[in-house]
Amino acid sequence: MNLFTPLSWNDSGFILTGILNTISISVVAIIFGTILGLLIGFLRAESNKYVNVLLGGFLDILRSVPLIIQLILFSTFIGAMGHPLSPFIAGSIILSLYTMSFMSEVFRSGFNSVPDSMRTASRSLGMSYLQTVWYIRMPIGMRAVFPSWIGVALSVIKDSALVSVIGYMELLRTGEQLISRTQEPLMILIGIGLFYFIISYPLSRYGKHIERKMEI
Length: 216
Prior knowledge:
By secondary structure, the chain is mainly alpha-helical. Helix content is about 80%, strand content about 0%. The radius of gyration is 21 Å and the shape is globular. The termini are far apart.
């Protein structure tokens, strides 16, 4: 490797660590963001306008304030309170909440997409409220929003690069350190972009595969 570039074989382990860290924090954020988003989305779909205003205001703040500012403010505040968190924990919390703010809108639109006539019909057949939610609204609503869920998940993978501002050693930060040492920005940035593509593309293809199966 040294015949063509200052990079050494030892750097491959460093890059692999960045890739695994990117995948780890993305998976955590997507899982918790999806679960919380599903709960908040359901509450917003079922609640009155006053609850919607309160929840909507909180979610608007999360969506409107740039993620990088949320990460810095949260990490700084927790540290100032005398309870510093590791970059992974702090980043996972904020990235999960940020993901939740978008997932909640996705799921709320899914729940609201189920016609009132179907809800009424299920109740007239003797189904309980919970049975209606579980067997009618969940399957139909989630099918409608699956493409949007994939889009949010792909955005989270790319947004995870911003967690580097609080010291988390993800893929972009490892690349920055390699650039600083080797002075080979073009080659390293192309490689980083390629790795993000390799991480994201399978999820995108899997999403299209599921969409085709749902259409059958």
